[in-house]
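I hope you will forgive my troubling you with a question about protein structure. The full record is reproduced below for your convenience:

——
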Amino acid sequence: GVDRSSEDSGSRRDSSSDIFCDATKEGLLHFKQLHADKGKWKQMYAVLRGHYLCLYKDKKEGQAHASCQTIEEPLQISIKACLIDISYSDTKRKNVLRLTTSYCEYLFQAEDREDMLAWIRVIQESSNLDEEV
């Protein structure tokens, strides 16, 4: 871990419970891959870093991975140039967002509407990172 004590990271990192200092957002999400053989919902611990949404089995696995205690790679979804929107038709569940990449579609269920909108916002921002540069 690199100790970056620049001012901007301090303002964003006000919660000490965050595992990843470079994460834009993290939290529990229910996850399902559309059109997969067994499209079952699973609860995952999601961490958004740069252009990747990493999905861990739980927060503990995410912590172990962050401190390099596990070699198991998380499921990584590239959100570069992805489409993200609220899903109304794919599921009866509430607060579901749909993430469409060039080769796959995923559903994520957030804990509440506010959380869902926050995920949509940060994923949109991260998927367009390059355009600002």
